[in-house]
Amino acid sequence: MRTQAVSNSIEMGQLAPCPKLFVVGCPRSGISWVTSLIAQHPKVVAVPRETHVYRLVYEPFVKLPRWTWQQRLQEWKGILRHYGLKPLLFGFKPADIWPGILRDYRILNRPDSNGLHSLVNYDELCRLVNAIRFEVLETNHGLNQAEELIAAMFDRFFERHGQPGQTMLEKTPMHIRYGEQILWRFPEARIIEMVRDGRDVCVSYNALAQQESWARLGTAGAIRQWQQYVEWGEAIRARPSFQSRIHTVRYEALKADPERSLQQIFAFANLDWNAEQVEAIVAAADINRVAKKEKGQYVRSGSVGDWQDQLSGAELDLCDEIAGEQLVRLGYKAGMANR
After folding, report:
1. Strand extents, DSSP E, 99-245
2. 4-8, 87-91, 302-306, 332-336: which range is least confident on average?
3. pTM of the predicted structure, to 2 decimals
């Protein structure tokens, strides 16, 4: 838990942690839609963009110290740009990683981009880093300090934008990879996991591939990514102590009956609701009414079962070969394209 010394150093009045709700799951699974629904609850304060805080703060302390000389040599340009010459030559120490976190902040700090700037400004980040490095003992290769920085940034955001009694909502799809770490570090946190038929996820990626380079995974790449996200979710649910703190929402169920799915989400998150309120929220967030998307938003009508018409027989065979076990385990029936 965050120490009182760090709290005093960064002048935070928020002592009791606010409830936290993380929305995760494979991209193109309706994550933005369900987040927009939850965010309309009056007792929810939503982080405006994806923070990727675990990739940008926690993950470097996990990965970089393990890099061999050969790995560092392959990534020499990025290391020099973000961290300097010393870690390239001698390997990463925790102290070498902090400048890269600050550097990444400056690179990503644009109005249309995701990143830590969704939580704090640059001056605040520098103050938090300095306070945590001074007050928190560096153990476990710096991971404890990384966790304290993440907690402090969440606290800072809530102190600025939230109100007592509200729940903080954060959406970063890949945070499912660190779901166990999130639930362990934040006892007050819960996770909403979105799951969609992996073949429809492939269709959604393919539809965007001509517009966005990040979507050019191909069917094989998209179904492998889906498989990995599903396995991460299964790992969380396999832990008895976490089972009651993760709620899986099927995209197909949300599409068929959004009011019922949203009621279940609110109940899971301990958010009061009534039928009229839920109906109004669903109507306001109807994805069919989104006439204009902002940069970085890629909302489609997302029909269920598009894969039957949009994927070729060869692509369906590929999906079955790579992730057929997961598809069957999740109850998604096999089938061929209607051609």
Report:
1. 167-171, 189-195
2. 4-8
3. 0.90
